[in-house]
Specification:
α1 runs antiparallel to α2. The chain has 6 helices and no strands. Helices cover 70% and strands 0% of the residues. The protein folds into 2 domains: 55 residues; 81 residues. The chain is mainly α.
């Protein structure tokens, strides 16, 4: 800054000049100096205030500047994570990740349960077919013709077919 541009330095120079003037000019000069001091102080306050405001504006952390284009390089480089919006929403992002993880886990467990159910249904069908086959074999072996054939083939059995037809015995109840 040049010496003439600084209002505080101009005020000090005028005070020095006023002290050098003669005694007759002192009252007139003192009034002028008071006006100059008041003017320079208000100018200095305005300059200080505007400088303070400028520093305050530069130092503010508000992200008022519009975000540039979002590119893949910015996303992969991690530049997107430094944005104020993402830092404010970190708990929301963590909650979303938690829900996504829980959803994937539940879906995986559901698919595993469906696979187990299919295996058990297949096993149940096989057991039903085996039971049906066993029941069919038992029914076939228990038929009268098969039992008689087995008795004829087995010589050690004392059982034989009766030659007399069956008849009803009437018993009196006394």
């Amino acid at each position: 800054m040049a010496k003439n541009d600084d209002p505080i330095m101009n005020a000090q120079d005028s005070n020095i000049l006023a002290a050098d003037n003669t005694a007759a000019e002192e009252p007139l000069q003192a009034a002028k100096d008071t006006e100059k001091d008041t003017a320079t102080e208000s100018t200095a306050k305005t300059t200080k205030t505007s400088a303070f405001d400028q520093i305050k504006q530069q130092a503010s952390e508000d992200d008022d500047a519009p975000v540039g284009t979002l590119t893949l390089r910015k996303i992969l480089g991690g530049d997107i994570l430094s944005a104020e919006m993402v830092r404010r929403q970190v708990w929301l992002l963590l909650l979303i990740v938690l829900f996504i993880t829980a959803g994937v886990a539940v879906r995986y467990q559901c698919q595993q349960d469906l696979i187990d159910i299919d295996k058990l249904e297949t096993k149940l069908t096989d057991v039903k077919y085996r039971a049906l086959a066993s029941s069919s074999n038992l029914t076939e072996r228990c038929r009268e013709s098969h039992v008689l054939q087995a008795l004829k083939n087995g010589k050690d059995s004392l059982l034989h077919i009766s030659s007399q037809p069956p008849y009803i015995v009437n018993v009196d109840e006394e």
